[in-house]
Automatic annotation (TrEMBL):
Recorded GO CC terms: endomembrane system
Biological-process GO terms, alphabetical: intracellular manganese ion homeostasis
Alphabetized InterPro entries for the sequence: Ccc1_fam
GO MF annotations, alphabetized: manganese ion transmembrane transporter activity
Lineage: Bacteria, Pseudomonadati, Pseudomonadota, Alphaproteobacteria, Hyphomicrobiales
Compartment list: Endomembrane system
Record membrane topology: Multi-pass membrane protein
UniProt keyword annotations, A-Z: Membrane, Transmembrane, Transmembrane helix
Keyword Metal-binding: no
Spans through the membrane: 148-168, 174-197, 209-228
Protein name as catalogued: Membrane protein
Amino acid sequence: MRPVHAERHLIDRIGWLRAAVLGANDGLVSTASLIVGVAASAAGTGDVLVAGCAGLVAGAMSMAAGEYVSVSSQADTEQADLARERRELADDPAAETEELARIYVDRGLDHALAVQVAEQLMAKDALGAHARDELGLSDFTTARPVQAALTSAATFSAGAALPLLVAVVSPANLAVYTVSGASLVFLAVLGALGARAGGAAVPKATARVAFWGALAMAVTAGIGSLVGKAV
């Protein structure tokens, strides 16, 4: 007998990868844009660093809270659907067996075999079978609010720290250019790493991340310059 080949699929990473990429990208773009905007207003180095630090802390907390609330809502919906399935299985198991069998018929099994498969799966774990095949829930996609919140806060802070460090070592009159240039490099690297981790095309992901980051910094720098001249 040939040994069973254990496969690892990239979908296994979807739970944390989305939050990690979103957090790091948001930290980089928002903090770099904030620093560039304040620097473009002709503010001093101290003001630029205060704005950058405030943006890092506020953004990390906002990301954590936002991810926790949104993913908790998803988890609540999943639990409500599971509770409904649990009640339906208790009230009418025969109808639930037929419902599951129809799903397998739609996937290509004949009705007799579909019923047999449904009965055997439900005999082992009825709720699990319906959660997976009717609701589309799995261990890989199940909502995990705490994991999402911590991942987003940590990666946002890591992303935001990069342009902030550049601002620390950069002269105030060059901060707009040094922070912008370094941040574009960081964004390109982030896009490439995210693409590699998710199995996507690296050039496309890198260009997409760098383009939107450049646009955000350009708009913020323009507004900062106008406000600086006005006040």
